Fold this sequence. Notes:
By secondary structure, this protein is of the alpha+beta class. The chain is built from 15 helices and 22 strands. The radius of gyration is 27 Å and the shape is globular. The relative contact order is 0.08.
Amino acid sequence: MLLEEMRRTIERYGMIERGDRVVVAVSGGADSMVLLYALHALRGDLSCDLVVAHLDHGLRPSSGDDARFVAEAAAALGLPIVCERQDVAALAYVRHRGIEEAAREARRAFLSRVTDERQASRIALGHTADDQAETVLFRLARGTGWNGLCGMAPVSGRVIRPLLPARRGDVRRFAVERGIVWREDATNTDLHFARNRIRERVLPELAAVNPDVVRAVTRSADLARDARDVERYVVDRLWPDVCQSEDLHSVRMSRAALAGLPRAVQSVALREAMRRARGDLQGVARAHVEAVRRLMTGERECGELHLPRLRIVASPSTIEFAAWSRRVARDAWLVPLSLGRTTVEEPGVVVELSLLSRDEVSGVVGPWSEVADADSVRFPLIARGRRAGDRFAPLGMGKDVRLKSFLINARVPLERRDRLLLVCDQEKVVWVAGVRLSDAVRLRESTRRVLVMRAEGVDR
């Protein structure tokens, strides 16, 4: 029964095509083990190859046993496996994330990397209908729109969820019937985690009202997906009438055309303008959209509004959305530097380094060129973005200060701070490109070798 339901789901959504290589994410729990065995049973009919992937989060003393268990299961099925261990707790601390969020980010990056390395086309996850209901209720409790109420999609990019229509109880029964062994994760009952509280407390209470509450919530998710598609259709149809011009980072809309729309449709159109200008809607709440709508419909002919990564300017006839430079995530990029020219893709910068004698240095002036005492630099150098807690000894101050405080006092605009390029040695920030050199590497009377640093193509 479960195998047939899974086969129909794969066919309905076109999850796997003949010749595909599928990376199967296996934690060792019941859902992922059933997913693995079911795909293995169907692989002949589907004409696909399977690769098992397991990430050990290092959060429990028994996590190593889980990794060995999954490796043994893969070997018994004759399947290749990629197993890796990461210190998710340390990752959460460094990135200022909760444990659950850090674990999701680590899994996502790991599975994406394995998929690329193994030249696979799909990533199979073992989410069930119960997981879908928990996700929708979790998002509903936090406050969400259509996208959140849609829950998890059966197919999202390379990710597929063949078990999404199946109930968790049916998955467990299938495992017992087929003699599939799994490992229980004790953290699944830890009520410190919000999803576990929904699973252990909220859903049982709702089941007292409607015993089939999981199916009811997942049907609501399907209806939300339909409503979202209708919304997109409406936006696509009206967009030529309300949008006067747009490019990669800005959108200009007609106030008169927007004013003729119903209030709810106005809000939808404004959200779409924000999405197109910024590239996403992360951090955009209903209050932000309403603030833009008030600016558009207000009595003032002109006005300006600043929202996260977005500047909105209203003129008598138009309302324009312009994106600030996208803030680079802390620790998101790091590039080793060597003598000569190095292209740093993330902020779009070319860094040129050279070593000269003191007598050879001339004509190095301006904020995008600097000279430093090479013997005060601990090579090798790297280029990176800002990190939380960075400290810096600005030239002329002679002492360490918080880099954030220095940038504020130096009146570096907010939209530019997280696009800054830092040149760092093995101990310290050597140069905040375009802003200031470190006092620790200033030229001295004793300087014999000079490090010359230049940056080109910086978003100034």
